[in-house]
């Protein structure tokens, strides 16, 4: 049995519009000027802390009240985004059929830096949850990608053994390739995602279409 570890944003689906729109919704609530969504999209796949720091830098500039302001905007953002998580977000072509085939005789996991609650809800809304064995979000454990810890934890929970199983880490970012390499999984870079290059650490396999992932089985 193979274990397939998938990134979420930029690999299974494109959620940049909804995440950027959520930023502006929170900025409006905080009485901040709206920003060009094209600029906001640059920060939506770098983890939530990076999103807050870069998309609300003007709001967080007051060091005296930084912690309080950070918690306020975090709560506002997580609530709004959860309630509007799949307005414009969509799967990449061929992803549903590919996951359906992979899940028939293998285990399929999502390893993402998006919060787990939001990840599960998005997978449900996109009708992908039925193919997913388990989900590790950016808040599921003490570390997130590029750390291999989320992979190690979920692999152990589901009985993974290097002597019996093959592991593949599939994603569109340098963090995905680094995490997979550290876990000793076969690393697979998806060229259709948010990033035009896989980063300094070369993946072992590059795929240009989701259906090409079926060669792994």
Automatic annotation (TrEMBL):
Coiled-coil region(s): none
GO molecular function: phosphoglycolate phosphatase activity
Leader sequence residues: none
GO biological process: DNA repair
Pfam family, one: HAD_2
Entry GO CC: cytosol
Catalytic activity: 2-phosphoglycolate + H2O = glycolate + phosphate
Pathway as given in its UniProt record: Organic acid metabolism; glycolate biosynthesis; glycolate from 2-phosphoglycolate: step 1/1
UniProt cross-references to InterPro entries, sorted A to Z: HAD-like_hydrolase_sf, HAD-like_sf, HAD-SF_hydro_IA, HAD_2, HAD_sf, PGP-like_dom2
E.C. numbers: 3.1.3.18
Highest taxon above the source species: Bacteria
Top-level EC class as recorded in UniProt: hydrolase
Family to which this protein belongs: Belongs to the HAD-like hydrolase superfamily. CbbY/CbbZ/Gph/YieH family.
PANTHER family, per the entry: PHOSPHOGLYCOLATE PHOSPHATASE
Entry protein name: phosphoglycolate phosphatase
Protein species of origin: Silvanigrella aquatica
